[in-house]
Amino acid sequence: MDATSASASARGGAATAKPIEVAIIGAGARGATFARLIAELEHLGKVVAVAEPRDDVRAAFVSQYGLPSANVFASWEAFFAAPRLCDAVVIATMDRDHVGPAVAALERGYHLLLEKPMATTLEDCRAIEAAREAAGVIASVCHSLRYHRGFAEVKRVVDEGRIGDIVTIDQLEQVGYWHYAHSYVRGNWAREDQSTFMLMAKSCHDIDFISYLVGLPCQRVSSFGSLTYFNLEHAPAGSTARCTDGCAVEMTCPFSAPQLYNDGPLRDWLPLPPSQAAAPTREARLSALRTGPYGRCVWRSDNDVVDHQVVIMEFAGGVTATFTMTGFTQQLARRIRVHGTRGELTFEEGGDSPGDRLVLTTFGGNVEHITVVPEAGTHGGGDRRVVGHFLAAIASGDRSLILSDVTASLASHTIVFAAERARRNGTVEHLLPPAHRP
Ligand SMILES: NC(=O)c1ccc[n+]([C@@H]2O[C@H](COP(=O)([O-])OP(=O)(O)OC[C@H]3O[C@@H](n4cnc5c(N)ncnc54)[C@H](O)[C@@H]3O)[C@@H](O)[C@H]2O)c1
Question: From 173's CA, which of 56, 70, 256, 351 has a CA 20 to 30 Å away?
Fold first, then answer.
């Protein structure tokens, strides 16, 4: 049963049962997305509580979901100090604030849907896995690519043996110059000390998918990459601290915040107070750019995460994989090429162009274009299925619906931490004990 039908049948089967009651911990961008998805799956789940410190955001959330005051908290600490009040929690706080609420949730017996990354250190990831083992509840990490319509098709075709055995994989993450500027120069993930390193923040999905697809332990990994461009050294003459400070090149700059946020690809991405967010005016946007982080010059900010990185991996049996993350692309889209003993498979997200493309070539020249049915929503419908599978797994007790449990996530996070060590230290990191090394 594929991801969609599992979710659909669970939804049908659970239609008469009481919906799973869920608390949202951190009602920011992702918490709001999860809450909306739960509300859309109304036969399966219901949002019944929230923990969120920002008063205006919390008040808007409470009003949207009609929450009673007893179920409203200003922090995850306050939420978990109260008696258990629902079945499950979604943890969508920022990266450095995952381990605390995740372990607290598991110790109190809540089922857990945890945003990626699990945590920002390997020790904390292990602590979450140990707490899950002790609790015995359902715990899912939001690795959306495992549930993404197109990537799920790649997994299905490979698992059916249609390209023989995997020999090597090449995956490309095109972050999009505008998305890179928004999130990794001006925004939440620009500084490692405030979030985590780039490979973990952005690409733990990719390393996770590669390891899921190969299905074998990773034995060696290395990596290269750096922050080459978004620094003072590259600031054009006449540029200013903010685009709105009279910058001499603003009109022709591809990273101009007024252009990106007013008329460009970021027009719906600027975080604004709830009172302005529903129908933001040009003036509201400009005011936010004059004072907030998103109006800063991309060469004069305080960012320190890499803008490009490559990772090379060797799995058991000699299967190899390469991964590239780059901020220097027009499109926000991923591509994977899988080369097997009997053929090759390429999947490419459409980005701005209509339609994702999945092409299977079997040696001898037979080429099959496999239809990937377009699906609305973030991550190729993956976020919706992450939530659907989580709720369905709790309702049915069927853990196999969770494609990305904490043990699987810990395994792929281990590769990500090792890759980052290799990048910093110029090493090849060995992940298997010496007795098992090639
Ligand atoms: N799966 C994906 O593809 C994906 C995509 C984007 C973000 N993420 C991850 O989701 C998480 C949230 O990202 P976001 O963009 O929603 O960030 P955000 O800043 O919009 O939301 C975080 C929220 O947590 C709240 N918060 C802070 N301290 C808190 C506390 N003590 N108790 C409760 N809430 C608290 C903040 O006020 C904020 O509303 C991050 O870990 C991020 O890496 C995952």
Answer: 256
Residue 388 CB contacts under 8 Å (≥ 6 apart), including other chains? 7, 10, 11, 37, 41, 44
Give yes or no for residue 199 CB within 6 A of ligand 1.
no
Which protein residue's CA is at the shortest distance from atom 40 of ligand 1? 94
The SS3 of residue 164 is coil
Q: Is the pLDDT of residue 436 over 70?
A: no
Token pair, residue 376, equals 């609305």
Residue 334 near ligand 1, beta carbon < 6 Å: no
Q: Give me the pLDDT at residue 10, please.
A: 43
Q: Give residue 367 CA to ligand 1 midpoint distance, Å.
A: 43
Pairing of strands 111-114, 139-141: parallel
Beta carbons within 8 Å of 29's beta carbon, 6+ residues apart: 271
What amino acid is encoded at 207 in this protein? I
* pTM summary value: 0.94
Say if CB 378 and CB 33 are below 8 A apart: yes
Compute the distance from residue 325 Cα to the ligand 1 centre, in Å: 22
Ligand 1: does its nearest atom lie under 6 Å from the Cβ of 245?
Answer: no
The whole-number average pLDDT for the span 146-155 is 95
Q: How many A from CA of 324 to the centre of ligand 1?
A: 25
Tokens, residue 288: 């936010």
Q: What tens digit of pLDDT does each residue of 272-292 get?
A: 988 888 888 999 999 999 999
Beta-bridge partner residues of 333: 174
pLDDT digits (tens, 9 = 90+) for 194-243: 999 999 999 999 999 999 999 999 999 999 999 999 999 999 999 999 99
Relative to the CA of 54, which ligand 1 atom is closest?
37
